Amino acid sequence: MVFFRLLRRRGLVSGRLSGLRRALALAFLVFGCGHGTVADPFVTGSHGGAGGEGAQGDAGTGADGGGAAELGSACSDDSQCDDGIACTIDSCDARRGRCRNRPDDSMCDNHVYCDGAEVCQSPLGCQPGPVVSCSDNSVCSIDTCVEDTQSCKHEPRDADGDGDPPLSCQGTDCDDFNPLVSGDARERCDNGVDDDCDGEIDEDDCVRPMHDRCSNPLEITAAGAYAVSTVGAAQDYGISCEVPTEDRAFRDVVVAITVPDGGPKDVDIVARIPRAKVHFEPGELVLAATDHCGDESAENTCVASVVSSGDAIARLIWRDLAPGDYAVYVASDREADIELHVDFREPEPAPTNETCGTALPLVPGEPVRAILAGLTTDLETSCSSRTGELVYSFDLEEPKDVRVQAVSLDDYGAPVISLRDAACTEDSSELTCRAAAPASLYARALPAGSYRVALGGRGPTQAELVLTLAPPTKRPPTEGCSDPPVLEDGVSEDVSLEDATDAVQIGCLVGAADATYALDLSERADVMVVQTGSDGDTGAVLIAESPCATSADADTCRSSDQWPVRAVAHGVGPGSLRAVVETAESKPTSITAFTRPAANSVFVQGADECDDAFEIPVSGGRFEGNTSNQYADYATSCDYGGQDAAGAPEQLLKLVLPERRRVVLDASGSNYQTILVIRRGDACPGDEVLGTCSVSYTTSGADVPSFSFVDAELEPGTYFIQVDGYNGSSGRWALEVFSARVSGDQGK
Questions:
Q1: DSSP string covering 640-657, please?
Q2: d(Cα 740, Cα 487) in Å, to the nearest integer?
């Protein structure tokens, strides 16, 4: 076998001589070793190790998904077969009259992805498996396992945090310990440093920053939009809300604002750095007002930015300024072009309703407006407001349906609403919350009593808030976990969340409207729930035990703004579970559930060509493999252009369907940029099934990829599932396979 692979690499033997190669390999096993049979070293089902090292396969891949089980003592019924190990399934083999004790790894699952998949080992019971390795074998990347998304994150090594990797790691930064120096920086004049890493110092195209000192500020005398730049600027002034660190160095410029004649004015200043190729962190842009430019002790107020929709935004409101000249520092921790928006308004007192004790009445149907800048954070909310909050109150003399809506009047951040009971300040007083643009919070049949509404924001926006009351309505069956409708296997349900409440609050997509369905399981099973939704919305899927009351009831939860969102729970049931679907903006969505008998993970060895493709059960299963040591044999239609004819190395799984079925493939948790393809045909390798070529990709601004996912209705026949790599990529892959009879065929 090795001999023929070497010949293939040298082009001396065709990769299609697989029949001869396999025959010779079998002959070697039978005769070369002097035994008619060879012991299978993979008889105890186990999870594959990271990168394929130390991985074991599962010898038993039947419909029950179980691993091998040794025959034990004589028995006549199951009750005689208890081996005292909690993670084995104990049964009496009636045909042989002997006990079978099958390890079930899913019973050991602690629902923590990054610590690896736990395994059941006799006689020890549950044991830890190998931790998930995210190493890409490159010293130029920082590799981390992300628990929330069950994926690996690979970030370029960048010691000074300026967004440019060092020269040794294919970046352009010639001094990775100085955040003021990089290939993305501009050359600053007369400082004796190669700021832009082009090998020259203080060359002719160097920059002298504008408005860098109090002596040459940007002068603003009227309301409007302005541009200012920190390119080439230095840190000249002490600003209290700057937070310098080893990988952060600020640059500042000066703005002179002239309040026109005609009486005092409120000055509203917004500084904004639009989304860039690097992700912003809070505080990377600051505004500071001073009564005397250059005097550190004269600082009047200082605000740091928040991140809203990828932009860094800082907003400063300077109240009741008499006509005259005033100075504002604008600072950023990178060279940036900054948008400034300045407005002069008639003076208004600062809001007085910043606490629960000073809440202002919220009258139904009467909107109120507020600017969410310069506020103190007094209340905690599960919806993660990034500004301080203002507090309003209303009373109910009888039960009512309550809707609280907030809309941003600019584009400086989504509003955040927190509905609270009369206790208000206690964390437990929050009944529900909502963060969206616009935000709409709905509570059904709220009892008589006194309530508070806290209004905050994901950014320093100006928001409009309105309260609407209506007679109480009846709870729909999908609201809450008590008695929801049953979700049939493989059947998609369209869900309207327009008048849905946040009925299930156990830590999935916090503050979102939700709908609940029942999953009735007749045996211990694996479950996948898939959600599709509307553009611009964020969805979440929760699989939980009834009554869905605490976080301990949650089996798994996944949330994303990339569709489809899917979650998998292993080894759950038998009994009735709950599938909860929710969206951040209450837009229409859909939900589909797939089930299969509980299955241990199987590590796929070989499977390099169709002749040795790994055959999987009709019901699906859990599979792992590694393409790093495989060969490139078959191309895919969705690969990167310009690849070699065979593309990247791949492995093949074989699926034989006796009937029309809906088949779902999910490569989440893989360690490289995978491609999934389904091929059909008795002749190897068959033709791609239209619409089944799927690539893992990472959208602009995202931290983690959207993994390859295929959902296809397939006619009876023989299929090959190709696990490939995009643009030559290879590595460790993980694959969940589920299938269900197509809707309408269940009774056939």
A1: PTT--TT-S--EEEEEEE
A2: 13
Tokens 């009496």 -> residue: 92
Of 559, 588, 617, at which residue does a domain stop?
A: 588
From residue 711, how far is each of 16, 400, 526, 735 by CA, in Å? 30, 43, 17, 13
Residues 454, 536 within the same domain: no
Q: Is residue 264 part of a domain?
A: yes
Q: What is the DSSP letter of 357?
A: G
Give residue for tokens 């809906």: 662
Tokens at 5, concatenated? 């692979």
Q: Which residue, of 291, 319, 345, is where some domain finishes? A: 345
Joined tokens for residue 228: 């200012």
The residues pairing with 272 across neighbouring beta strands, listed in sequence order, are 313, 339
Q: Nearest CA to 258 among 180, 363, 342, 361?
A: 342
Q: How far apart are CA 712 and CA 636, in angstroms?
A: 17
What are the pLDDT digits (tens) for 161-186? 777 899 999 899 999 888 889 888 88
Place of tokens 């080439």: 232
Enter the tokens of residue 296: 């550190």
Residue 75 lies in domain: 39-155
Q: What total of structural domains would you count in the chain?
A: 5
pLDDT tens-digit readout, 529-578: 999 999 889 999 999 999 999 989 999 999 998 999 999 999 999 999 99
Structure tokens given for 334:
């990178």
Q: Longest C-alpha distance within the chain, in Å? A: 105
